[in-house]
Amino acid sequence: MAIGVLAVQGAFIEHEDVLRSMGVDCFEIRKLSDLDRDMDGLILPGGESTVMGKLMNELGLMEPLRRMIADGMPVFGTCAGMILLAEKISNDDRKHIGTLPVTVLRNAYGRQLGSFSAEDEFVGIGRIPLEFIRAPCVESCGPGVDVLCEHGGRIVAVRYGNQLATAFHPELTGDKSVHEYFLSMAGLL
Ligand code: GLN
Fold first, then answer.
1. Is residue 50 within 8 Å of 84, Cβ to Cβ?
2. Which of 23, 76, 160, 164 is buried most deeply by CB count within 10 Å?
């Protein structure tokens, strides 16, 4: 029973620390053979989506991960991870994994002053701390996408079946409730 954490760039260690503090095994995905391990769920961390997307292509990880997610692997994307999952990026021609039927806007809060802390309601959890770092937001959702959190009139967390995505960073706040939500999606809680 373990969660695979994409570890090619970005804030993967922070997710691993949260998982370990919850008693959940995890391992890093850095190359194709890492996908041979038994995996109950996958985390796509924050970082720089363009860099992560490029490395995933170069490492041959993009297509296998896309297929695993399309086949139902529970996945949790935070910030750049949300951008990797999005079917469309309104201010970027790139598409990465593209399995989540939403349109996202990169750097929705501006590039320089786009980092801030806040708090808001998350469906099924209650009020949680929100940490934004040059975050995207969801501009529009396709059918079947549930909005789980809005902040300041913007959609910042969604779920579509096995796919959970947050524009913010739950791994940085000390509040484990969104990770608990994901682990229950993955059948680990
Ligand atoms: N701005 C980054 C991007 O576009 C995301 C930032 C983050 O993951 N903290 O990929």
1. no
2. 76
